[in-house]
Design goal:
The protein is mostly beta strands and 91 residues long. It has one domain. It contains one helix and eight strands; from the N terminus they run E-H-E-E-E-E-E-E-E. A five-stranded antiparallel sheet has the order 1-4-5-6-7, with no helix packed on it. The chain has a three-stranded antiparallel sheet with strand order 3-2-8, with no helix packed on it. The protein binds zinc ion (ZN). Zinc ion (ZN) binds next to loops.
Length: 91
């Protein structure tokens, strides 16, 4: 998946609803550790590029891809390879 300069850039709150479909809890307050630079960011702080049919999430510190989410044909594809650790409250 390539990201063009013209892609619509949003903050992490833009994917709150999408992540809520996948996880059973509110995820925008979750803290992700970037696998590339090790910086911690709340999901609500990341850079989101809406790139139909998928979403690309980039680290606001180093700009590397943290997460890719594609939804289609009744399925989700969730690539979290750029997130070393995701911390969120239990219930
Ligand atoms: Zn980073």
């Amino acid at each position: 998946m390539t990201v063009q300069q013209s892609d619509l850039k949003l903050d992490g709150n833009a994917i709150g609803g999408l992540l809520r479909e996948i996880f059973t809890m509110e995820m925008t307050a979750a803290i992700g550790t970037c696998a590339h630079c090790g910086t911690l960011h709340a999901v609500g702080e990341v850079e989101v590029y809406m790139n139909a049919p998928g979403v690309v999430v980039r680290c606001p510190s180093c700009g590397e891809v943290q997460m890719k989410v594609v939804r289609g044909h009744g399925k989700y594809w969730l690539d979290l390879s750029g997130v070393r650790c995701l911390e969120f409250s239990a219930g």
